[in-house]
Amino acid sequence: MKFLNKIIHELLAQNTDLSAFNIILPGKRPIVFIRQILEENNYSGFLPNFFTIEELINTIADQQTIQGIPLWLFSFDVYRSLNLIPRDDFSDFLKWFPTLQKDWDDILKFSDSDQAVLQYMFDEERIKEWAQDLGEDDDVPRKKFLNFWQNMNVFLPVLKEKLQEKNWATTGMIHEAAKARIVDFAKNTKEEFVFCGFNAFTPVEEKLVRSLLQWNKAQCFFQADRYYFNDERQEAGKFLRNHKTWKEFDDDRAFQWIEDDFNQPKKIKVYEVSGNVTQTKVLPEIFKEINNKTYSNTAVVLLDENLLPASLDVMHDVDNLNITMGFPLKNLSFSNAVKRLFYLQKQLEKNKLSYYYRDVFPILEELPKSVEDEQIINDFKAKIEERNIVYISRKLLHELLGGLSYYGLLQKATGTNGYLDMLIGFCQQVKWLEIDDIQYENVSHFENAFRIIKNQLTPYNIEIKMETLEILINQHINSESIDFQGEPLRGLQIMGLLETRLLNFENVILLSVNEGKLPLGNSQNTYIPFDIRRFFDLHTFLENDSIYAYHFYRLIQDAKNVHLLYNALSSGVNTGEKSRFITQIEMESSHDIEHLIIENSSEPITTKPIEIAKTHIVQQRLQKWKEKVSASHLTSYLYNPIDFYLSKILNTSETDEIEEELSIKNYGNLVHYSLQEVYEVLKGKVLKESDLKSSVKAIDEYINTAIEKLKHQPEFYEKGMNYIHKAIAKKVIENVLNHDLELIKQGNKLEIIDIERRFENIDFPLEGNDKISFFGFIDRIDKLNGTLRIIDYKTAKIKNLNVKIDQDNADKYFHNSERKQALQLCIYHYVVQHLPEFWGFPIETGIWSFADAKMGMVSLQFDKGNIDDAMKSVKSLILEILNPDINFVETIKTY
Question: What start-end ranges are recorded for coiled-coil regions in this protein (predicted)?
Answer without folding.
Answer: none
